[in-house]
Write a structure and sequence with these properties.
The structure holds two protein chains of two kinds.
Chain A: E1 3-7, E2 11-12, E3 18-25, E4 33-39, E5 46-52, E6 57-59, E7 67-72, E8 77-82, E9 91-105, E10 108-118, E11 122-126
Parallel strand pairs in A: 2-11
Antiparallel strand pairs in A: 1-3, 3-8, 4-5, 4-9, 5-6, 7-8, 9-10, 9-11
Chain B: E1 9-12, E2 18-23, E3 34-39, E4 46-49, E5 63-68, E6 71-76, E7 85-93, E8 98-101, E9 105-109
Parallel strand pairs in B: 1-9
Antiparallel strand pairs in B: 2-6, 3-4, 3-7, 5-6, 7-8, 7-9
The chains are: A mainly beta, B mainly beta.
Chain lengths: ~130, ~110
Amino acid sequence: QVQLQESGPGLVKPSETLSLTCTVSGGSISSYYWSWIRQPPGKGLEWIGYIYYSGSTNYNPSLKSRVTISVDTSKNQFSLKLSSVTAADTAVYYCARGVFDPYCSGGSCYYYYGMDVWGQGTTVTVSS
Amino acid sequence: QSVLTQPPSVSAAPGQKVTISCSGSSSNIGNNYVSWYQQLPGTAPKLLIYENDKRPSGIPDRFSGSKSGTSATLGITGLQTGDEADYYCGTWDTSLSAGVFGGGTKLTVL
């Protein structure tokens, strides 16, 4: 059974870079779209982005200029870096296994993207 | 504000049925598949419904999903106190080329 575990500093200073790692156990990181999602205190879910095991990425347009997601297949890990953080980046950060399937017919494509396995989440506070 | 619109809260009595709506547009729900997630207090979200109406292994058939046009609906029958949670819809937005979620709906079982 695949399990995901986030790790990284729980406190980051404003203007610095938030760095988190997600370790995948019980299965291979090959295939799937490894995703990051965050949840500010008392608020809803916000999609940050994903990386395919081959290295291709896709990011939330509102965060794109500050986000980098990378993968280390040899360690079965993927990572998140968010630069120039402010208090608005304080949140619980989740890593998740994503499934992304296109269904194409007659020149049109419909997409399924969902997260079927989630880590327990890690709280990151941005404060001096 | 979220790309997908959900009611902030719904409530019903134990044993009853409740539905939670999720409204979007042609660039997301209208042309892509929807997922639903359950987030129990203090825990990570859990996949409840995928591809509009499919249930992962282990999810009871009290939970159902449907989609019509640019809206999706989660249905829960035989409500239990253990169903009290926040529920989120999610999908892919083709115009944004991004994953999107609804703002979440808090279910109270009275």
